[in-house]
Specification:
322 residues, mainly alpha, Alpha-lytic protease prodomain-like, disordered N terminus
Amino acid sequence: MSASGGTKAIVAALGANLAIAVAKFVAAAFSGSASMLAEGVHSVADSGNQALLLLGGKKAKKEASEEHPFGYGRERYIYGFLVSIVLFTVGGVFALYEGYEKIAHPHEVEHWYWPVGVLVFAIVAESFSFRTAIKESNQLRGKLSWSQFVRRAKAPELPVVLLEDFGALIGLVLALGGVGLALLTGNGVWDGVGTMCIGALLVVIALVLAVETKSLLLGESADPAEREKIRAAVVDGDTVTRVIHMRTLHLGPEELLVAAKVAVQHDDTAVEIARAIDAAEQRIREAVPIARVIYLEPDIYRATGTEPTTPAEPSDVKSPGA
């Protein structure tokens, strides 16, 4: 995932949410709508979330240090996880609370044209933001479905913005429905029902984001296609004859660690092996450019079934005769 593409989508969402938040709070003040107040808080939370994503992207660019020799690429995962927490608490839980209060103590929506006008404006603005996120994501999604893209993306920014914008649009429709029913029936309870639905939606989205970013924080391997490219690049058929076992780990969205034990000919000299290892590293970087940190350990392959001696990635275990 390109940093520029993610940043463009974040900035578009940030601008839209700031404008919408101001409009929603003005409408809530004039109309007394709980749905408007919940949506205003939701937009503020979204704006803060986008600021967190931008901050995480900036911190991730720090140079590696002696204390952090592999750099700060995972800062983006940490801030992505913080976004899910903010969305859950400030967005979802607050909306559920406001909805409960509105149902328990309903009152008629005043000055209906304020919330309705702001909701229509917000739907248009969020649609532009959502369109930007979709456009940027399509450049990276390939043939993956949207659910697969959200699950497999190694960079958190676009999945977060996509889900936030999707949740915002659905929430706006729910808020419009709640306000509309309250106006039609004269019963303010419907405003609270709409708010409760918004809260439930935000909680679900926050949980999905938390699960996905937690997996990234724990450390995910390269995609299967990238692992196969690395395997093919390592073996030259002359000095390096096979990959005995291999590990890959994302140090950040755009930085991959590769560690592998490779088989070499038993009668090769140390100089020949060193040159073959250097050449293999170069081939890996050409095949998978994000492979920045590479450790290759030469060994003599023993067809005894004892290798690998440590847990392997799914495609690492091969039969001795392979």
